[in-house]
């Protein structure tokens, strides 16, 4: 970093600052610091100043826009930016000076935002911490990873305190968190999948998540209140047609949503997830609601973020791997210089391109997600190739006219149980209730049901995995049919709610 690069920047190099990421991360785009004050907390979220190096209209910028996002596969990353930037000068590596954009946010003792300021800065990260080490301290109470840097212990404990307050505030307004496990593929040196395990989301992850959400909201609020252009991250209300079918699905369990025609709020979704927690129907409710949700996207207009129950939201914290974040940095910098003629021209130029950038980056995000999902599916099926004939427990995750889809409980692999393999009866598809019903026996296969399956065939290239249900006739329940308001619903007993796991 040259001396002239520091001109006009707030010097935060003496402030105790850390990055917290996964063990395999190589591009560190966010660093955090915190101080306890008499009336609350002061949080510094410093984000890599990629816009200092990637200028509008440059070849780097054109290629970054074309890619739109970094793509993460189990064994490699295809970066949006060259690695000399993403893993080098832009990455907030420990014990080196780095240029950043900082959101400095003051909170009172309850976690209520009092003030937010933004400015170009320079930091010197004191440590590259992992989620595992931070979890050992803030969850398990072990400080063995910090014997050489004991000054980090009170810093992280204060972060934990503020993060829990912010999470409580977010949940209080109705922010939605789905409880669905994410798979992690463990690969050997040759790229072969050795195991598939459940990802762990600990308090260490939540600290960073809450701080990034807070910074993103604060930046969006600043740009919006300042009547500046903004590239919003929007999430619109759930699809009403899907919600109508979902109401029918959950009615037999005594679970409800506001009636058709009434406004659906994040609080209503959150209450339903809370009511289902710990019950046999919990997974069914999570999967069903997720299918009702629209996909978040980028937009030049502010439609709010339904899932976060946020009236105003953007992506600011990952400019190394997302082009929209880079655009937000440019808008924020220009907004902070709004009295200058060059800033006004820059705001005008970016504003003209926002709609097309929003559409393009949303499209690139979907392409990246599909590519990532496809490779993960391939790796999963390769893992299953030597398991033909073995039996596993699983959950029904989808029901169709030709059969049902089952996800294995422990290794998160999904396959098809074809109708032709159900020999105990002839099953018909009840589309409205997401159920296969035996015509003669009344036995049912329903979304969320637990079944035991045998692996029948695996075809990685065709992305096909087929199961058969073990002793289907003895496994599948016969549920009594009752008539309610001229509709027939299977009755299932309501059980008590277990204590929250979070």
What does this structure look like?
This protein is α+β, with helices and mostly antiparallel strands. It is 32% helix and 26% strand. It contains eleven helices and 23 strands. It has helices spanning 59-67, 83-89, 131-138, 152-172, 203-225, 240-250, 266-276, 282-292, 323-336, 341-384, 472-475, and strands spanning 10-11, 18-21, 30-37, 40-48, 71-73, 76-78, 97-108, 113-124, 127-130, 183-187, 193-198, 232-234, 297-299, 391-400, 403-408, 414-418, 427-430, 435-438, 444-446, 450-459, 464-469, 481-484, 487-490. Strands 1-8-7-4-3 form a five-stranded mixed sheet, with helices on one face. The protein has a five-stranded mixed beta barrel with strand order 14-15-16-21-20. Strands 17-18-19 form a three-stranded antiparallel sheet, with no helix packed on it. Strand 15 (403-408) and strand 16 form a beta hairpin. Helix 7 (266-276) packs antiparallel against helix 8 and helix 9 (323-336) packs antiparallel against helix 10. It is globular, with a radius of gyration of 25 Å. The chain starts with 9 loop residues before the first strand and ends in a 12-residue tail after the last strand. Mean pLDDT is 90; it is low at 480-502.
């Amino acid at each position: 970093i040259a001396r002239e690069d520091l001109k006009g920047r707030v010097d935060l190099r003496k402030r105790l600052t850390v990055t917290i990421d996964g063990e395999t991360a190589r591009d560190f785009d966010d660093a955090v610091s915190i101080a306890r004050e008499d009336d609350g907390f002061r949080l510094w979220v410093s984000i890599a100043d990629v816009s200092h190096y990637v200028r509008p209209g440059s070849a780097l910028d054109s290629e970054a826009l074309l890619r739109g996002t970094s793509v993460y596969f189990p064994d490699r990353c295809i970066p949006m930016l060259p690695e000399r930037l993403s893993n080098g000068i832009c990455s907030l590596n420990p014990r080196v000076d780095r240029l950043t954009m900082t959101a400095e946010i003051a909170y009172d003792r309850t976690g209520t935002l009092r003030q937010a300021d933004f400015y170009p800065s320079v930091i010197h990260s004191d440590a590259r911490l992992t989620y595992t080490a931070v979890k050992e301290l803030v969850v398990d109470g072990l400080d063995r990873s910090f014997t050489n840097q004991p000054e980090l212990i009170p810093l992280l404990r204060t972060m934990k305190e503020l993060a829990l307050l912010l999470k409580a505030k977010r949940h209080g307004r109705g922010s939605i968190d789905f409880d669905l496990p994410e798979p992690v593929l463990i690969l050997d040196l040759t790229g072969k999948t050795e195991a598939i395990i459940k990802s762990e989301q600990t308090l260490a992850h939540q600290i960073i998540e809450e701080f990034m959400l807070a910074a993103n909201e604060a930046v969006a609020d600043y740009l919006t209140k300042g009547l500046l252009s903004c590239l919003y991250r929007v999430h619109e209300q759930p699809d009403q047609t899907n919600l109508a079918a979902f109401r029918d699905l959950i009615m037999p369990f005594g679970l409800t949503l506001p009636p058709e025609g009434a406004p659906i709020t994040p609080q209503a979704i959150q209450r339903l997830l809370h009511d289902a927690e710990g019950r046999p129907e919990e997974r069914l409710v999570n999967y069903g609601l997720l299918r009702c949700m629209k996909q978040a996207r980028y937009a030049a207009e502010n439609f709010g973020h339904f899932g976060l129950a946020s009236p105003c939201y953007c992506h600011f914290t990952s400019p190394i791997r997302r082009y929209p974040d880079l655009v937000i940095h440019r808008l924020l910098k220009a907004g902070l210089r709004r009295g200058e003629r060059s800033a006004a021209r820059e705001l005008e130029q970016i504003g003209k391109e926002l709609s097309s950038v929003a559409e393009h980056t949303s499209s690139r995000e979907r392409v990246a997600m599909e590519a990532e999902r496809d490779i993960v599916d391939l790796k999963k099926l390769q893992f299953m190739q030597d398991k033909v004939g073995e039996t596993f427990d699983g959950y029904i995750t989808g029901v169709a006219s030709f059969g049902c889809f089952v996800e294995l409980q422990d290794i998160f692999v999904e396959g098809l149980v074809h109708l032709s393999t159900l020999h105990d009866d002839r099953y018909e598809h009840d589309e409205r209730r997401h159920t296969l019903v035996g015509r003669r026996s009344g036995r049912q296969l329903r979304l969320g049901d637990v079944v035991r399956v045998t692996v029948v065939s695996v075809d990685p290239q065709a992305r096909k995995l087929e199961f058969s249900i073990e002793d289907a006739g003895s496994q599948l329940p016969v549920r009594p049919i009752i008539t309610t308001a001229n509709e027939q619903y299977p009755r299932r007993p309501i059980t008590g709610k277990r204590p929250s796991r979070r």
